[in-house]
Here is the input.
Amino acid sequence: MKIGVLALQGDFAEHQVILKRLGVPSAQVRLAADLEGLDGLIIPGGESTTIGKLAEDFGLMQPLREFAARHAVWGTCAGAIFLSKDARRDQPLLGVMDITVQRNAFGRQVDSFEIDLDIPALKAVDPSGKAYHAVFIRAPLIEAVHGSAVVLSSLPDGRIVAAQQGKLLATSFHPELTRDKRFHQYFLELAK
Here is the structure.
């Protein structure tokens, strides 16, 4: 198995560190040719508008859409926005995941926070069911899931922060900024 990490902008290196800890080879993706031979792709946090514009500039939009139709793709924070069909503003989106996302829903950088979440889906890789410590930095909110998309986790007040649609995964938070490998392990199961 080999996982790509979109390396146009954002915290792609942090995802590669966790994949290495899991013993999974990874590759940075900057061009369409870099997608060849990959079993899955992570789109990291960063700035969603910048990621979208660079993907357009490098001719990646259609190749990424085609890849997402056949493989597992996970968007974290800005990556979740980029995967969505609706970000409630005009910006380049892959539009492959049937979710509506609100950018910077929790406020500015100073409003960043951490919280323990119940994520039942992670029992597939760790039956203990222990809480997942999630890090939110200028995070988007998944306002709604549509079609075959399902909610994986919500905050205590019901706001959605993780969703899945088949092999597509979106998280508002940054699993790459914790030592907990379970979300990456869950994604690897989707990529098999």
In short: The first strand starts at residue 3 and ends at 6. The two ends are 8 Å apart (CA to CA).
